[in-house]
Design brief:
36% helix; 3 domains; globular; alpha+beta; Nuclear Transport Factor 2, Chain: A
Length: 427
């Protein structure tokens, strides 16, 4: 017995297993393009996921056609999919719990490079690989992690798990990466810290890798409009700007300025960061500049390697009008993270905005990737934010809103507060 994929009769059947049921639920919700259906999926099967972020991805991909079930086990499934808006293919791998309903423990979806086929994929790992990953993680954390004391606790924990044989039976690379990540985050509570696995073996980067990555990133930024989703004027001349990341100013500064200039005559402004996953602190400073008339110290970054501190201030110049003196509201959710949290925290400490929504994710550590081998890498946080007013950050705690409401109610609350404030101002 099998479950039909439900989008085209020619597509392969999805197996009738807990993993198959869960994968089909994701596949149908994603392709359906309905945010409520996606939200229902995440609530039931994958509470860590975000319907809004999935919708952004769907807008870029147009949904997926199922090409092949590569592997099926009771609690694990692998599939080949193809974007509906391009010829790009992707490899999906999902692991779930043995429960009813099953809960997703690992889900990856990676684009296959041109010319790479399913035959090039390799999910299997052996004891030598597991030992190499643990040894490299221990070395990288000991050398680079922002807190040496926490690094020592994490490496001790990894060695203890290894000694007890916790990893001995793990032969799936994606599952192993997720398991090691969980063990590291159990100690550090650092959501930027992560071990990443690729089923596609990659050679050491060539000398011009930085340029290739830069060009790929530029194309990605262009493709999603530098993560700017919506700029509009709401009733009462209230500006509304939703953007889901902070791209580098040299690539995305013109887009940010265009959005801010569109709202340059607004009486108040609402920044919607409920799906903002972060980005470049220089762009945080760039957008913040529109909200201040005088030079303003926003944030510092302290780096472990040389114990240096880099200050971030508003800029001397940005194109167009500034909104200094205008009421500002920032919408947050549990998915607001990293640079999105910095923008929120900076404005909160400077008493420049009212924060409305949910407590944010709690990630204040910039991260750098370290190659382990041709299939594993580890992202190691190497620095920490230090606010010049509070002398601390939102790491591990998130940013508490001034007005705590469910994320999906935040915009309505902000609109009412802005309208009330403007009404009083104009009396």
């Amino acid at each position: 017995m099998a479950l039909c994929a439900g989008t085209a009769s020619a597509q392969p059947a999805i197996p009738d297993t807990p993993a198959g049921h869960t994968f089909k639920a994701w596949f149908d919700a994603f392709n359906g393009g309905d945010v409520k259906a996606l939200d229902a999926y995440f609530q039931k099967y994958d509470p860590k996921g975000s319907a809004a972020q999935a919708m952004q991805f769907r807008a870029m991909s147009g949904g997926f056609d199922l090409r092949q079930i590569v592997k099926s086990e009771r609690l694990h499934i692998e599939a080949l999919v193809k974007e509906r808006t391009s010829d790009r293919q992707g490899f999906a791998s999902m692991d779930v719990t043995d429960a009813d309903p099953a809960v997703v423990t690992s889900f990856t979806l990676r684009a296959l490079p041109p010319g790479v086929s399913i035959a090039n994929l390799n999910m299997r790992i052996d004891a030598t690989t597991r030992a190499r990953v643990v040894d490299s993680a221990v070395a990288d954390l000991s050398t680079f992690y922002v807190s040496p004391d926490v690094a020592k606790k994490m490496t001790d924990a990894l060695r203890a798990h290894e000694k007890r044989g916790v990893y001995d039976t793990v032969t799936d690379g994606a599952h192993f990466a997720d398991l090691v990540t969980t063990h590291l985050q159990d100690v550090s509570h650092d959501k930027h810290l992560r071990v990443v696995f690729s089923p596609i073996p990659t050679p050491p980067p060539p000398p011009d890798t930085a340029n290739v990555i830069r060009n790929d990133f530029r194309h990605s930024m262009e493709r999603n409009n530098c993560a700017f989703e919506k700029a509009e004027l709401l009733p009462g001349n209230i500006g509304y700007l939703k953007f889901n990341g902070f791209g580098p100013p040299d690539l995305c500064g013109p887009t940010a300025s265009a959005a801010m200039n569109f709202l340059g005559n607004a009486a108040a402004i609402i920044f919607d960061l409920r799906d903002n996953g972060g980005g470049d602190p220089a762009m945080v400073a760039y957008i913040s500049t529109y909200l201040f008339a005088e030079p303003t110290h926003l944030n510092d970054l302290w780096t472990r390697k040389d114990s240096s501190t880099h200050q971030f201030w508003t800029l001397p110049y940005v194109a167009g009008k500034r909104l200094d003196g205008k009421p500002v509201y920032v919408l947050t959710s549990k998915h607001t993270f990293s640079g999105g949290e910095e923008f929120t925290y900076d404005l909160k400490e400077l008493k420049r905005a009212v924060i409305i929504g949910e407590t944010t994710g709690g990630g204040a550590h910039p991260v750098a990737g370290h190659r382990i081998d041709d299939r594993f890498m580890i992202g190691v946080p190497f620095a920490t934010a230090v606010n010049p007013i509070s002398h601390t950050s939102w790491e591990g705690t998130g940013v508490e809103p001034d007005v705590k409401v469910p994320a999906d109610s935040a915009l309505a609350v902000a609109e009412k507060l802005a309208a009330d404030t403007l009404r009083v101002t104009h009396q």
